[in-house]
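Structural prep section.
Before we set up the soaks we want a predicted structure of the protein with pyridoxal-5'-phosphate in place, mainly to decide which crystallisation condition to try first. Input record follows.
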Amino acid sequence: MLAFEFHSPEQEIIFPLYKQKGIRVFVKRDDLIHPYISGNKWRKLKYPVNQAKKQNKQRLITFGGAWSNHLLATAAAGATFGFKTVGFVRGEQVENTVLKLCQLFGMELRFVSREAYKNKLLLFEENYGLDSLALYIAEGGYSRQGALGCSAIIHELTRSYDRIYCACGTGTTLAGLQNGVKECKLESTIIGVPVLKGANFLHDEIKKLNVAENNELTLLLDYHFGGYAKTTPELISFVKNFTQKTGIMIEPTYTGKLFYALHDQIESDKIAPGSTILALHTGGLTGILGVLDKF
Ligand SMILES: *Cc1c(COP(=O)(O)O)cnc(C)c1O
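Run finished without errors. Recording the tokens verbatim:
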């Protein structure tokens, strides 16, 4: 196993609304795992990085958009565990704080057209197909190995929860949570909050990653705020208020939408009184750097 193992704590947060509705809410603080190999990205990279070590690979090759938490996590993991990293970035060449941080950790950035970016396996084959020391890591860490890394979240829990909420991009984290619940024989319902619009396709994507059969899956499809990385003044003000009242920083792209959805469900009596809820803080706080001008 890799050099650092970290069991993130579960911390209760208290809002008058939660009290009034008789609901307890805990946050699993995966944001505390590492400042840059953050949250679920660390979980998803753990097995690929272990595999790379075992197979004596020297390069991790991966993919992401210009504000990708996954690119930054891969760059930082590469620096930590002794790999060179290459990030294929979608779209024309740009500069931003997240990409600068990727470079600080030694990642080589290769900008590719949106057209070329669509076929990532081909990009890998064309550039590293003959390089036996290079390991392909899927965009966003979407993989069975990634889901396996995320099922550990459930194994670490110190109390039982009626519902577990998480934000969804590729759905890898959610698939892992579902597998974890099966493995631990728990009754918790897993609820995903997709951050992109029209995320019904996630049902299939998550099925492909699930080792466990016949999982029921609840996705709350109406909390995307217009789509991936889209935000509204209402969401921004929610993020501010949450951060100021709890001391737990969230951001608008993922965790803001997650906690907003949870708050809204509690407010509109979608959750039974007496329930104990866990929300997974998946980290990714550098994402806020891209929207700070909205605050
Ligand atoms: C990448 C990311 C997600 C999405 O996770 P998936 O496993 O792709 O669904 C959620 N939250 C944060 C903070 C992320 O950076």
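Observations: Residues 39-54 form the longest helix (16 residues).
Flagged for discussion at group meeting.
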